[in-house]
CAP-Gly domain-containing protein (Penicillium citrinum), 279 residues
Amino acid sequence: MAFQPTPADISVIITAASASRTSNAEPTFVTERRVTPSWTLMQLKGKLETMTGVPPGCQTLKIKVPGRNDQWMEGDDRRIEEWGLMKGVEIEVHDSRPPSMRPNFTDLSSVEKYELPSETYESLPNSVLAWKKNQKLGRFDPNALSPEEALRKQVEKDQNDVVTKGIAVSKRAIILPSSPPHIRRGTVRFVGPVPSIPITGPGRELERQGEEIPAELQPIWVGIELDEPTGKNDGSVGGKRYFECLEKRGAFVKPDKIEVGDFPPLDLEDDLDDLMEEI
């Protein structure tokens, strides 16, 4: 009996056809693998399942040989060498299942997400929190203010800015920083705490702990009715209204970002003058 050499493996390109029906749709999977020409078509499909996730019984394969017309590979018992394998050949895997029956690995909405318990995180020796503890940074600084003290200091600063800048309801004001032609001006409509705006800075630790912030520790905000629709609200935040104005005419700004003064509303003549200057 004559010796029969084992056919050498051939490197081919494996692609998974896109679910899109457009002719220029990009494949969802591309890789290069070595295959043995003596494999049957069913053996090849078994190998392709581990790459594409498509069960062998749902695979329809198309072979693309350079210089020849594309062919559908049919006959699970046939050897794949019958289709003229050579380097550079592409085998395209088509999934015959309806789209609704195919698993969607990109949809993470149904995936249960793991949340590390805070107790476990605080016990880790190599976390950012542990590093801050070792370096005595942030709230671990023995000289750092407590969240209550930090909030109280912020409120005192806000109140001082309101008094020294003369901020009061009905006064005209601009929002800083402002420089021509981008000057946001309007009328002060509200001065006081806005509990529906999340607290930032050191005081946010109190909100994270679920504690109710006392009224005397609520930061001060200035509500502005803007002359132009460059705001973010209509005078309400978090479902609570603090003043009345049109949509996108309202803005809430910290007192240090406000300057009150003689800032008359822009009128049509001002706009025409600016336009003539640009021309």
Observations:
- The CA atoms of residues 129 and 192 lie 35 Å apart.
